[in-house]
Specification:
429 residues, mainly alpha, 0% strand
């Protein structure tokens, strides 16, 4: 007997529907550039239209300025021509950019042009100063005696083959070394105090430091002259000049180091504290190594501020034409003060010595900058060859100690047994 299906319309042999395919992401097609399309362009790519806009605006500004100065108005002078041409360039550049871009893009292009032009101006001024000093001192720099003799036996009328600036180089190095010995530890300790011990007194100290960054150099010289020379009865010497330079350098180092230490991530301090380290060990082993490159920059800024001062050295150390390597007694001259004294003379030889001294000062600053970058310019985690050698040596020493400890252990010594848990008991009925 055959049973009829309960639902006669249903097909018992109908296969089950297959699973639908998973949805896929469809990327939109790039619409063609046109009246109704959108043109894609890379924001960091320099287009040909950008170069054409800058060059065209610059040429048009120069031509229009030339017409104004030579045909329309009775203007003259290179400075006025440059200023008018620059203003016209900005106006014409904004007009050209506005033909293709909207308002925010035009403002962005104008701001970029102003910033780039100011940067080029600063570089041009720096190059001009360096080249001018080297060119004016080209007559004195080739002479070897210029670096190995002092001015004890050379007068204003002596040729460049006699006399030199050895006394000024020695005085500058001695004074700046003493100033760095005083200011670097004090500046670093003060910067750490401002960041690690916040409070009302720290805010007061930060305010005083910020105010001292604009302290005139003559005031620093007068302060040391009144306290050390007049008050304590000390003589004019290189040490007094170094103290005056320290007053100038200290707020610069503190302010720059304070900003750098403030940028150290807080998670590094928290990780150190989580390991049970004290605050000062955290500062010494975590904060200062992390900010080492920035702290080097702070020291460089302070050195550049102190090495070029003239009036504090003149007030506290006086002037001499002889070599004096004793910073505790007798006058001592520096390179900026020697430059000032040389260029005051109307003699061409003395003026050439002055510009040669200025070029030597710039070279000395460059050498100090490079040395500071080599010593402390590495980022956190970067070790020198000596530090890597010490680390490898310490690893080998630890490996030998572990091997010796393992060899002293008896071979038949059983391993320490661990207590085992009792077997689980069956539940009671």
């Amino acid at each position: 007997m055959t049973l009829a299906p309960r639902f006669p319309d249903a097909s018992p042999a109908a296969p089950a529907p297959a699973d639908p395919a998973p949805p896929r992401t469809a990327l939109p097609l790039r619409r063609p550039a046109g009246p109704g399309g959108e043109r894609r362009r890379a924001l960091r790519q320099l287009r040909a239209s950008d170069v054409h806009a800058v060059v065209g605006a610059a040429l048009a500004a120069l031509a229009l300025t030339w017409v104004i100065f030579t045909r329309l108005l009775p203007f003259d002078g290179a400075v006025g021509f440059t200023v008018v041409a620059y203003v016209l360039f900005l106006v014409l550049y904004a007009l050209v950019v506005s033909l293709d871009e909207d308002g925010p893009a035009v403002a962005d292009r104008i701001a970029a042009a102003v910033v780039a032009s100011l940067g080029l101006l600063m570089v041009a001024v720096l190059v001009f100063v360096v080249v001018f000093a080297l060119w004016e001192g080209r007559k004195a720099l080739p002479h070897l005696n210029f670096f190995t003799q002092d001015m004890r036996l050379a007068g204003p009328l002596e040729p460049l083959s006699a006399g030199g600036i050895l006394h000024a180089i020695t005085g500058t190095l001695i004074q700046i070394t003493i100033a760095l010995v005083v200011t670097v530890p004090a500046g670093m300790v003060c910067a750490v105090f401002l960041n690690e011990v916040p409070g009302r007194f720290a805010r007061f100290v930060r305010t005083v430091v910020e105010a001292m960054t604009a302290l005139p150099s003559i005031v620093a010289g007068l302060f040391i002259y009144a306290t050390v020379i007049l008050g304590l009865g000390a003589d004019r010497s290189g040490f007094a000049a170094a103290l005056a330079l320290s007053v100038m350098m200290l707020p610069i180092i503190i302010r720059a180091a304070d900003v750098v230490i403030r940028l150290v991530p807080g998670i590094l301090r928290e990780a150190s504290y989580a390991m049970g380290t004290s605050r000062w060990r955290t500062v010494w082993h975590v904060v200062l190594p992390t900010a080492r490159s920035g702290l080097t920059t702070a020291v460089i800024l302070g050195t550049a501020r102190g090495i070029g001062e003239t009036s504090p050295v003149l007030l506290t150390a006086g002037f001499t034409a002889e070599l004096n390597a004793d910073p505790t007694s007798g006058p001592m001259v520096s390179l900026p003060l020697a430059t000032f004294e040389f260029v005051k003379s109307p003699e061409p030889a003395m003026i050439a010595r002055g510009f040669g001294t200025a070029a030597t000062l710039m070279g000395l600053v460059l050498l100090l900058f490079v040395a500071a970058r080599i010593v402390g310019g590495r980022g956190p985690g970067h070790l020198t060859r000596r530090q890597e050698h010490r680390r490898v040596t310490a690893s080998h020493r630890d490996a030998r100690r572990f091997a010796a400890r393992a060899s002293r252990r008896p071979a038949d010594r059983p391993a320490p047994s661990r207590p085992t848990a009792p077997p689980p008991q069956p539940p009671s009925a």
